[in-house]
Amino acid sequence: MHPGPPGVDLPDGADPLAAWDDFLAGIGVPPEQRNTRSAIEDPAGHGPRLFFQQVPERKRGNQEPVPGSQWRLVRQSIV
Fold first, then answer.
1. 29 within domain boundaries
2. CB 72 within 8 Å of CB 58
3. Which residues lie within the region annotated Disordered (predicted)?
């Protein structure tokens, strides 16, 4: 389950990702940076929040990085 943006009450059936796109556009985040990180939460509130972050490709020797992107999962513990 993707949570909605801060301060946005999503009606039942609303697309939270579309709400995030509108929210990020409203605060001036450029389109090319809007999909570089994301988080999901357990709908029941028991599991950890999972944060995904786009990271640069590793270089292979002196070559340029391979096109595409890698994603890293960072576990955030619940206090």
1. yes
2. no
3. 30-49
Domain count, the chain: 1
In this structure, is residue 4 part of a structural domain?
Answer: no
Nearest residue to 77 (alpha-carbon basis) of 48, 38, 37, 55: 48
User: What is the C-alpha radius of gyration for the chain, rounded to an integer number of angstroms?
Assistant: 16
Task: Name the band, by pLDDT with cuts 50, 70 and 90, for residue 22.
Answer: very high
Rounded to the nearest angstrom, the gap between the alpha carbon of residue 23 and the centroid of all alpha carbons in its chain is 13
pTM, to two decimals: 0.55
Q: Using CB atoms within 10 A of its CB, is residue 66 exposed (0-12), middle (13-18) or buried (19+)?
A: exposed
Residue 53 within a domain: yes
